[in-house]
Give the backbone structure.
Amino acid sequence: METYDFAVIGAGGSGLAAAMYGARLGMKTVIFGTTNGSELPVGGLITTTHIVENYPGFKSISGVDLAKKIEDHARHYPLVDIKNEKVEQIKKKGNCFFLKTNKTEYKAGAILFATGRRVRKLEVPGSKEYENKGVHYCALCDGPLYKEKVLAVVGGSDSAAVEALILSEYAKKVYIIYRGEKIRAEPVTLDKIENNKKIQVITNTIIKEVKGKEFVEKIILDKPYKGSKELILDGVYVAIGNEPINELAKELGLRMNDKGEIIINHMNSSTNISGVYAAGDITDKKFKQLITGVAEGVTAAHSAYEYLGEKKLKSCKKS
Ligand SMILES: Cc1cc2nc3c(=O)[nH]c(=O)nc-3n(C[C@H](O)[C@H](O)[C@H](O)COP(=O)(O)OP(=O)(O)OC[C@H]3O[C@@H](n4cnc5c(N)ncnc54)[C@H](O)[C@@H]3O)c2cc1C
């Protein structure tokens, strides 16, 4: 069984930054990220973002390029091993953590949860049946399929508004359908929405059903829009939020808030279990951005280094 000082679960920006710092502090570090199935690639959620304009040092950069730069920086250190494996079980025995992946098993002296969040699915008749046949969850990934088509974005957050803006670059018409009174986009995004002639916001409205033949052809609304509850379109993009990927953390006994986010000490990214840290979108911090996740990741690496040093657990080789 391979043994590491520091094991990072989740190879998004927060985890990669932690791994990079871990190696700089002399810790043999493994980081797990998955590329198969519905999981995000190495680089994580930011890879689904069109343009990032708020990461210091880059006035404007695509999410994919920024993620690649962070990944390359982590790979630069020989002490970092990036494994395209999914962690399926974690157990603590004595001072050691035992991690089982879909391929093999590992041992580590300290661990970091940087597992991020998964998108919340639209749960109405037809939404599952038409997934990838007109029902989508990532405008950047699938938007180019809908040149000159009619689309709807479901949701009212800033992310939903950004999705609509991305889609408007391809589609001829984009509806934003939101159950609330007013969409909750940031002022700068709202301004772009209001000045975009292709985008139409429909508020106080819920999607009841997705219908079609081989592909989506229409949606059924709970109240009429322009006299009809049927809205004819070619695709629906769902942006109704996300939830923490916390199953492994729960099993291990980490303390969580009522949203299922890992409660950390914001001074040092530690959790209620010694040797376990958390960083990024999985934690209970309010402002979830790449830069705040990166900050928690590197803080966690430093805390793990101090923890291993103090307790002389490096590599937990003897257990
Ligand atoms: C539409 C949109 C636009 C955004 N725009 C910006 C922006 O402009 N600027 C900004 O700073 N932030 C932005 N964000 C937020 C930013 O993307 C996130 O805050 C950040 O990417 C979180 O990084 P993370 O490493 O914590 O989690 P993630 O990037 O979600 O990474 C977690 C990784 O862990 C993996 N994982 C989970 N469980 C396991 C397991 N058991 N085994 C192995 N791997 C596992 C996942 O597959 C994933 O790759 C945006 C978010 C969205 C949705």
User: Anything to note?
Assistant: Residues 290-311 form the longest helix (22 residues).
